[in-house]
Amino acid sequence: MSDTLVTRADEAIALRLIQTIRADAEAVCGPDTVDLVSVTFDVAAATAEASSLTYKPRIDRKTRTILFTGGAAEGAKGIVMTATAVYRITPRA
Q: The whole model's pTM is what?
């Protein structure tokens, strides 16, 4: 069994990527709130250092209640990870 207290490179990249995607989702949907419904990561190369990458979010489609979004983590040699996510949009009361 591996040590669960150690964050691997691919996990650090995934975390930064979903944080970037969520921040973009909140900006696009504000003042409404967003709640993550699903997320999928595709890893091309997880050997890069998370802090040396560029994180780019994108919005695919927005309805009144659902946001389809995603993004990519890119390094000097190209994309190392992509993600797609779905958020539920809840109107702020």
A: 0.90
